[in-house]
Input
Amino acid sequence: MEAPGNRRWWALGGLTLAVLAVGLDGTVLSVALPTLSKALRASESDLQWFTSGYLLVLAAMMLPAGLLGDRYGRKKVLLASLALFGVGSAACAYSSSVGAFLAARVLLGVAGAGVIVMALSALTVLFSKEERPKAVGIWAAANFVALPIGPILGGWLLTHYWWGWVFLMNVPVALIGLVAAFVLIPESRASHRPGLDPVGVASSVAGLVALTYGLIEAGQYGWGDGDAWLLIMVGVAVLVGFFGWERRLNRLPGGQPLLDLDLFRSASYLWGVIVAAVAVLSMIGVLFTMPQYFQGVLGATAMGSGLRLLPLIGGLVLGAVPASQVARLMGAKLAVAAGFAFLAAGLMLGTTTSMGSSGGFVALWMAITGLGMGLAMATSASAALSELSEDLAGVGSAAMQALNKLGGPFGAAILGSVLSAGYLAQLQLSGLPAPAAAATRQSVFGGVAVAQKLGSADLLHSVRAAFVHGMDIALAVSAGFAVTGLVLALAFLPRTNAPQALRPTDTNKEAVIAIK
Output
């Protein structure tokens, strides 16, 4: 029989495969959308909902997934989520209508939330406080690796095989994760079974759905869109009410809230979660702009765009995997700050990118950016998890993931507006017919299509130069986010992790893990 230590690391391998499957699903969809438009006769609105529906459910189900794991058993929820993810992936592949595909995407969102939260909470159960930083680094690397693999593998499959294979490829990965989790991961749950808190669950789901959808709408239609602002304000108001309700339950004798607010009394957890979210926000600039740059300006295919992201992923892995050793030498505060310094430096180099920049220069600054992101993200996440007791592993991990998932649409909405403003400010559209000018204003892809249709080299140059101008401004804003993260880390993140693990509010709740 393998030593317990080896079993833990084998279990982590299975969990990383599961996390990779969830990540692949999101990146593969972006490549498959044009094919789905033809195969399912989907409209632009339908295509938007294929992506948005998944993101809405994924963000909204984080906290309920954490509660279910703490209440009924994290291994049970993980196994059920992996099985559901396999079923949802197969349902996507064999969908014959828009409604069926959208239903399958919603199912994948529910399953994905369970996999993400339970995989992260399993690190608290499987590894000691000393081992968690290394495990978190490996977990973070698995999250990042999906970014280029999705477009590369998805583009290859779509070129040579039936489109359903881009979803069916998740099934064997989910099955391997299922077997690994069943064999290697011990069952665990909170020692005191938490209540279901239906008001808390309903308000958290409603608030996160409204806020996430509002941010998605703002990213698509701009910050001047009234519907987007209405959704954002409703979402914020509902979430404020959620926290008020949770605070009341925390104070009541015998109250059983969905979210134990004592979590946020720990500076390591609170600022670890916040700084990790800022790291995600900083990174969105690269993930949002560079695929458009590769495809719209350089003319690469989706598969080629994925290959050009490899230096970024190499940097991410190089920063994330040894993050535990760096934190041990420097302390969490300085390690996170160093990560943000590299992240900001890489992004500022990126702002000098031009139409004539060499591939080597772009690869260099993306690798530096990735290195900083890997170090900052892995170390800040480890700082947050370090004080998390096994009793709070599910909900504590879910709260961190819910905030991180908001970073994607929030960053895309901000940077999309910045990029669009810079793009439109530099466009030269004099003499173009109104329909052509409107299509050019929409995006770099619309502009390239118009220029190629008209055979206008001048317009093509103008469109691409305008996009690069807007991209450089967006990367500068991202660098500003990274500097903000650096300041927050130095000002608030503890230098080292406190020795005491967080405990549930009720002192009668013994923090003894129930392992079977």
Notes: The CA atoms of residues 80 and 148 lie 28 Å apart. The chain has three domains: 1-193, 195-257, 266-501.
